Amino acid sequence: MIKIVLYTHILSATAWVGGSLLLFALGILLRDRQAQKAVYAHLGPIYGYFETFWLVLLWITGLTMFFHYGFPDIFAHAPDSELAGKMTVKLSIVAAITLLTIIHMIIAFKTHNAERTFIQNLISRGSSMMIFLLNLVIVWYAIGIRDLL
Ligand code: HEM
Fold it and tell me: What is the residue-wise DSSP string for 65-123?
């Protein structure tokens, strides 16, 4: 059973991180501003629902494994262990990613098909860049946790 949970977790991670890699690549490679605007206008909402679905699944499957592997006991009895340390970093990154995603989505819904102010643009682009970079780091920590389990 836990194998299916891990499988779903890894599948969700590939979809979540893969989606952000694709959008990042589009932002860099699609230089034509009109084409970029059109692509983002159509793809944006679908991408938002797609990513939200996988992030929710990551939380559900992640928390299931968190309890299955007895992390509450690890934090209670071995808070200074490498495993507890790595999980603390991982959960902090997940919390940051989740918060940045919520901020990004609020702006996206508020300004869909409308002109953005300079500040809205800055926050929207900044949050997606941060999510992209944190995604690269979190996979590294996920592997580290797996090594110790
Ligand atoms: C953006 C969110 C997340 C991403 C991208 C992510 C990514 C991953 C990946 C790729 C693995 C597999 C590592 C490997 O097999 O080498 C993994 C394992 C794991 N994740 Fe996550 N994860 C996320 C969120 C969470 C959350 C929210 C929790 C717990 C509350 C969690 C708990 C775990 C645990 C316990 C494992 C180890 C399971 C095992 O290796 O058997 N993850 N994660």
Answer: HHHHTTHHHHHHH-TTSHHHHHHHHHHHHHHHHHHHHHHHHHHHHHHTTSPPPHHHHHH
Among 10, 101, 145, which is best to mutate for testing ligand 1, by the most ligand atoms less than 8 A from CB?
Answer: 145
Alpha-carbon Rg for the chain in angstroms: 17
Q: Are 107 and 123 in contact (CB under 8 A)?
A: yes
Tokens linked to 4: 């299916």
CB distance 96 to ligand 1 below 6 Å:
no
pTM (whole model) above 0.85: yes
Please state, in angstroms and rounded to a whole number, the distance separating the CA atoms of residues 144 and 136. Answer: 13
Residue with tokens 């009109």: 34
Per residue in 111-120, pLDDT (tens digit) is: 877 788 899 9
27 C-alpha to ligand 1 centroid (Å): 27
Pick from 131, 69, 120, 74: nearest CA to 97? 131
Rounded-to-integer distance, Cα 85 and Cα 36, Å: 41
Which two tokens mark 50? 């797609």
